[in-house]
Amino acid sequence: MKRDFDAIAREKFDLIVIGGGIIGTGIARDASLRGIKTLLIEKEDFGYGTTSRSSRLIHGGLRYLRMLEFHLVRQDLHEREVLLKIAPHLVHPYPFIIPITSLYYQIALSIGVRMYDVMASGKSMPSHQHLSRREALEMEPGLEELKGLTGAILYYDCQAPFTERLGIENVLSAAEHGATIINHAQLTGFLRDGNDVCGIEVLDCLSGETYRVKARLVANAAGHWVDCVRDLLHGGPASTVRRTKGIHLLTPKLSQKALVLFSPVDGRLFFVMPWLDYTLIGTTDTDYCGDLDAVCADEKDVAYLLQGARQVFPKLRSEDILYTTAGLRSLVHIGGEKPSDITREHKMLDHKQRDGIEGLISVLGGKITAYRAVAKGAVDMVCRKLGMEVKCITAEVPLPGAPAVSQKAVAKAAKESGLSVETVTHLADLYGSCLSQVLELVRGNKKGGQPICSHFPDILAQVEHGVKQEGALTVSDFLLRRSAVGLSACQGLDAVDTVAKEMGRVLGWSKTEQQRQVEAYLAQASLGQRFRAGSKKRSRQTKKV
Ligand SMILES: Cc1cc2nc3c(=O)[nH]c(=O)nc-3n(C[C@H](O)[C@H](O)[C@H](O)COP(=O)(O)OP(=O)(O)OC[C@H]3O[C@@H](n4cnc5c(N)ncnc54)[C@H](O)[C@@H]3O)c2cc1C
Questions:
Q1: Closest ligand 1 atom, residue 23 Cα
Q2: Cβ of residue 229 lying under 6 Å from some atom of ligand 1
Q3: CB distance 120 to ligand 1 below 6 Å
């Protein structure tokens, strides 16, 4: 991943993709695999937007059956299977328990899970099971607290514990197949040929320089910023998406299995999900019109989820929350419905048809689960517009870290590298078979094997790998989206100085720059603590769990 703006300003690309979330990186990968000369720019970092703030599920979405969105559920269940095949190191089967507390739930949910199994025809995961009250309590003793528990349903979906890395691997694959990919590069304007779009103006966010780059087509995959990008072209008619906020709470581990619960406030479905050594509780769904780059949970969001979770975990207190995350959905219907009743379907816009402007398409919405299918739809449209006929092959070509590393290979690598099995297992979960690249750095420099955080098994060599192989350019990029250190109980606060120093060594930062990087990260991390009334910043003194 070379960062050469002069070189791209001399080129003419077939396609420029705006936005390095899961949708944009998926489009860049698909396009480059089809031989389309592609540039992707991302204003912050890959996965910086909603992609890194999800529930980490790869799922059909049982609740969409209630909304009669059969097409969406079938597509997403199909994509779940595709991801199990092309990214088995990042996507894993994940059991859910739905406690039954009334006859109505029993009937409605039984029909729902049966349909879910039928729609996932050809699936590789087990079908649902009904559990008696005793069996449910054996599996999840905490359910004892739930009023009226008569039994439960056990069903399977998938989890991508390190969802951020799905995007990174799409970037790596796109780059490997010829795409030019640049993060910290923001679209600031469009080049026009009469009414049509023929390129972009891009700001190098690190140097402050602006460049002009030519292209035959531009794809706007800016997630919930999609209208901000469109507005650079023309003031535009009303918004194309409705933004709703969804938050999660991270707490010490509460349950062994993921629980599907219904809020006592409004009956909405939410999850209590084991994630690594913690529990994620989420999510909410409320309209949002604040700062798009400083989305965070507030006291009201947190109170809503705590009230729901206390049905099963009555002792859970606000003080138990380690941090919160918050992201924005882009929903394609902008009418007056309740946010939870709005479809999660995506939409493709050809601005030629909508506004009479050739050269620009926009992708609205799109779940992580369906990212490959959404990207395929976008690149099919690109091919039609470019007069090309090339088949999509992203369902067959594995992502770079595939296949998953076997336990035997982990044990062997641990022995050879001198690292613990726990560390190598963690590295294999993050990098899949690309683990060998990190181990190579440990072989070259024993210091590379040192841990960088007392809460997570990550090691120093990952920093050099993140910078040199995966385009990490800031401390936040590394802590939050290359490794999972920033997602641990301490939010990476224990590790931030070490990481800044090591990135400084690799990238040649001055002491002042290292300090600036640390402060930028602390500001980012503090968003996760904003819900605590009266204290805007979390002390660097961390909490042990
Ligand atoms: C709380 C919550 C939970 C969710 N859980 C799940 C789940 O479990 N499973 C699932 O499948 N889906 C889930 N989703 C949905 C899913 O996360 C999103 O639909 C998906 O991540 C959107 O990806 P994206 O690429 O469109 O947007 P984003 O990830 O937001 O990416 C857009 C990118 O565009 C960049 N950008 C913006 N403007 C510019 C510009 N001018 N120049 C350059 N770059 C720019 C941004 O920096 C950003 O990185 C969840 C959503 C929320 C809010």
A1: 25
A2: yes
A3: no
pLDDT band at 124 (very low <50, low <70, confident <90, very high): confident
> Is residue 44 in contact with ligand 1, taking CB distance under 6 Å?
yes
End-to-end CA distance of the chain: 38
Q: What is the DSSP string of 465-504?
A: HHHHHH---SHHIIIIIISSGGGSTTTTTTTHHHHHHHHH
Averaged pLDDT, 511-521: 98
Side-chain-side CA neighbours of 158 within 13 Å: the count stands at 29
What span, in angstroms and rounded, lies between the C-alpha atoms of 490 and 456? 9
Q: Is 48 in the pocket of ligand 1 (CB under 6 A)?
A: yes
**286-287 and 323-331 strand pairing:** unpaired
Using one digit for the tens of pLDDT, what is the confidence trace for 461-476?
999 999 999 999 999 9
Q: How many CB atoms lie within 10 A of CB 111?
A: 11
Return the residue whose CA atom lies nearest to atom 33 of ligand 1. Answer: 19
What does the DSSP 8-state code read for residue 456?
S
538 pLDDT above the threshold of 60: no
Whether 544 has a pLDDT exceeding 90, the answer reads no
Can you read off the two tokens belonging to residue 523?
């500001």
Q: What is the pLDDT of residues 438-466, one digit of tens each?
A: 999 999 888 999 999 887 899 999 999 99
Q: Is 20 in the pocket of ligand 1 (CB under 6 A)?
A: yes
CA atoms of 247 and 24, how far apart (whole Å): 23
Find out whether the beta carbon of 24 lies less than 6 Å from any atom of ligand 1.
yes
- Provide the mean pLDDT of the chain: 93
- pLDDT given at position 233: 86
225 lines ligand 1 (CB under 6 A): yes
The tokens describing 170, both together, are 């799409």
Which residue would you say has higher pLDDT here, 69 or 397?
Answer: 397
- Smallest CA-to-CA distance from 288 within 297, 280, 299 is with 297
Whether the pLDDT of residue 541 is over 50: the answer is no
Please give the Cα distance from 323 to 122 (Å, whole number). Answer: 39
Cα gap 491→496, rounded to integer Å: 9
Query: Whose CA is closest to atom 37 on ligand 1?
Result: 222
Residue 92 carries which side chain, given as an amino acid letter?
H
Angle made by CA atoms 498, 2, 230, in degrees to the nearest 5 = 100
Q: What pLDDT score was predicted for residue 497?
A: 97
The response to whether residue 49 sits with its C-beta less than 6 Å from ligand 1 reads: yes
Q: Whose CA is nearest to atom 15 of ligand 1?
A: 367
Write the residue with the smallest CA distance to atom 25 of ligand 1: 21
Contact assessment for residue 481 and residue 164, using Cβ atoms and an 8 Å cutoff: yes
Instruction: Decide if pLDDT at 334 tops 80.
Output: no
pLDDT value, residue 355: 83
